[in-house]
Amino acid sequence: MASILSTIRTAAQKRAAYNRTVAELSALSVEQGVEDLGLYPGDAAKIARQAVYGR
């Protein structure tokens, strides 16, 4: 039972990190994201998924 709760807790923490990362990347202005970092707002979900889940 403890391992199930641990798995659920870990999944919830990763999902929260994913949501925060998507929100932060989506909030970048064009100057911050595209010009400074080379990131496009449309790629926020993909970048967050790779950062949090490694895929």
Poorly predicted ranges (pLDDT <50, ≥5 residues)? none
Tally the beta strands.
0
| Shape category | elongated
Question: Can you count the helices?
Answer: 3
Provide the structure class.
mainly alpha
Largest sheet: none
Residues in helices, as a percent range: over 70%
Head-to-tail CA distance between termini? 28 Å
What is the chains' assembly state? single chain
How would you spell out the order of helices and strands?
HHH
Report the mean per-residue pLDDT as an integer: 90
**What is the CA-atom radius of gyration, in angstroms?**
14 Å
Approximate strand percentage = under 5%
Q: Give the tally of structural domains.
A: 1
Descriptive notes:
- It is a single chain.
- The chain has 55 residues and is mainly α.
- The chain contains three helices and no strands.
- It has one domain.
- α1 packs antiparallel against α3.
- The longest helix has 25 residues, at 2-26.
- The protein is elongated, with a radius of gyration of 14 Å.
Concise account of the structure shown:
With 55 residues, the chain is an all-alpha fold. The protein has helices at 2-26, 30-37, 44-53.
Topology, element by element:
Blueprint: H1 2-26, H2 30-37, H3 44-53
Helix pairs in contact: 1-3
Features:
55 residues; mainly alpha; 3 helices; elongated
